[in-house]
Amino acid sequence: QNIDLASFKVRSYKLAEDDHTLFFNGYSVKCDKASFEIIYEKQRDYSFELVARDTDHLYVDQWTKFGKPGIRTGYDKTLTIMKKVADPSSFEMISDLWAKDSTSIYSNFTPSNEVDMPSFQFLFEAHYAEWAVDKNLLYHGGEIVKDIDGGTFKALNTFWGKDAHSVFSFTTGRIRSKIDAQSFEATDDKGGGHDKDNIY
């Protein structure tokens, strides 16, 4: 409804515009059209994810970003303003899960109070999870991995990591307490490794 057909054009997958209004999923977006820009866009087999901003706000296709299936109704029928983002002008996506602006690290668009921002490092996405670390902690998705020292932790590959005391398996998401951390080495990129006593 309320479209100027003469100037209407498709901008990207679910985004369109005319001379006056921006539309997403067939519904108008209440934004500053002149400063509106897409900063993250991903099309998957069964979903589409979009993050955008204008001068004042950050906008997310919240329905698909958070995995809700079905027909859009009510509040979720168009782009949603992420009110917890402090500085949209500096906001950038690090991965599907993690993002940052000038003030905070965000997990699923929510400021993460546990994360040490200066030392935060996104490691990789593998084994159906995203992994990150800072000087204090290791993160599995947005959750803290218990009993791992982020300050000494090193990812050896996408299968193995270790801190000063423990060997960690990214495939199981657990500490391998029977492996000797001091002598352990990853031997290939297929999950192989050994310590002073055993081959894994």
Features:
200 residues, mainly beta, four-stranded antiparallel β-sheet, 1 helix, elongated
Distance between the termini: 62 Å
Shape: elongated
Outline the biggest β-sheet: 4 strands, antiparallel
Instruction: Assess the beta-strand content as a share of residues.
Output: 35-45%
Strand order of the largest sheet: 1-2-3-4
Q: Roughly how much helix do the residues carry, as a percent range?
A: under 10%
Mean pLDDT: 89
Q: How many alpha or pi helices?
A: 1
Radius of gyration: 21 Å
H and E order: EEEEEEEHEEEEEEEEEEEEEEE
The total of beta strands comes to 22
Q: What features would you describe in this structure?
A:
This protein is mainly β and 200 residues long. 2% of the residues lie in helices and 36% in strands. The chain contains one helix and 22 strands. A four-stranded antiparallel sheet has the order 1-2-3-4, with no helix packed on it. The longest helix has 4 residues, at 62-65. The protein is elongated and about 75 Å long.
